[in-house]
Write a structure and sequence with these properties.
Helix content is about 30%, strand content about 30%. The chain is of the alpha+beta class and about 350 residues long. The chain has an eleven-stranded mixed beta sheet with strand order 3-12-14-15-10-9-4-5-6-7-8, with helices on both faces. A hairpin with a 2-residue loop joins strand 5 and strand 6.
Length: about 350
Amino acid sequence: MFDEIIKEILESIDEKSNFTETYPKFSGDGYKAHKIDIKNFHKIEKIISNKRIAFIDGGNAEIIGSANFSLNLIRVCFAVYENNKKIIVKKFEVLAFVQAVNQSNEIYFKASFFNIKNNIELGEISFSSFDHTLMTGVNRAEIKSVANAIRRFVELRIAKLISDEKIADIIVLDGNLQSTFTDENKYLNELYKSCNKNNVILAALSKTTSLLTHNGNLLSVVLENISNIPLWFYYPIVEINNSSHKAEMFFVKFHEKSKHILRFEIFNIQRTKAEETINLLASNCIDPIFIGYPYGLVEADKIARISNQEKESLKTIFLIKLRNRNVEKYLSSVNAHDILDRISF
C-alpha cells in the first residue's frame, strides 16, 4: 500500500516538473500577475555599508485559557546590525488578557495589556467572535486566536518606534506587508507614514511561501528550476493595486548554496530602493546556521521564541495563585486534549 502511495506522489511531482507555467496565481482583488520570464532574473551583488538594519520578529504562547478567556505572553525582539555587526538588541514583553464580553448583543473578544519588559502602547483592541480574519470554517473564532493578531500589532508598533526614533535606516519585518487581520491596516498605515517621513526603508521577508502558479505548482520551485544565475532576485512578479497590501513583491535567493527561495516585499513608494536593500541583506545571509537567510532575523527569532519550559513555568505560577479562585472549572472546558495526551497506553 505504501509503495503505491509513494509511486503516486512521485508521479505527481514528476508531472509538475515540466515547468510549462506561464503565470503565478494570486487570490483576491487588485493583483495583476506578470508572465513568468527568464529575463526577470537579476543578479544580486553583495554589498556592505554603514546603513543600520533592524530585524523584527515575535512569538506568543497561551499561558492559561478557556473558551471565554485567554492569557498570553507576547514577546517581540528587534536586532540592529551595522556592517554585519550586531549593535543593538532589545525585547518587549506583554501579557495580553483576552476575555469574551457582550457588546451590542454580540460576543466580542476584548484585550487588556500588562507590560512586563519595555512599554509599548497598543490602544484598545477587540474583535467580533465572528470576525472572518480569525475564524476557521463557519464556527465562532477561538478566543486564543486573538493572540496572533496582537503579536502582529506589537511588531508593527515596535517598527514604528524604530522609525520614529531613527534607530535604523532599514526595517525588515518577518513575514510580509499585507494586512490580514481586522484593524491591521491602521497599524501599517501609521508605520508607512512614519517611514516615509523619516526616510526609513520598510521591507519584509517571508521564509515560507505558498504562492502557486496557474496549474498548481509552487512558484518558488518553478523559479529555482528555471533560474540561470546562482544568486538572484526575480522581478517583476505582480502589479499590486490593493489598499491592504501596499507593497512591491520580489522573490530572492540570497546564497548560492541555499535551498530556500524567499519572498521579499518593500513599501511600494520605496521600490527604487529595493535592489540596494536586497544586496545589503544578501551580505547578512552567509551564516551556516541558516545559510541564505538573514542572521539578524535568526537572532530576533531566537530571542523572541517562547519555549515550552518557559510557558509551563508561567502556567504553574498562575495556576498556584488562582487555585482558590474557582478557575479550574473554566480551564476544564478546553483541557480534555491535554489529558488524553498524557495518557500512556
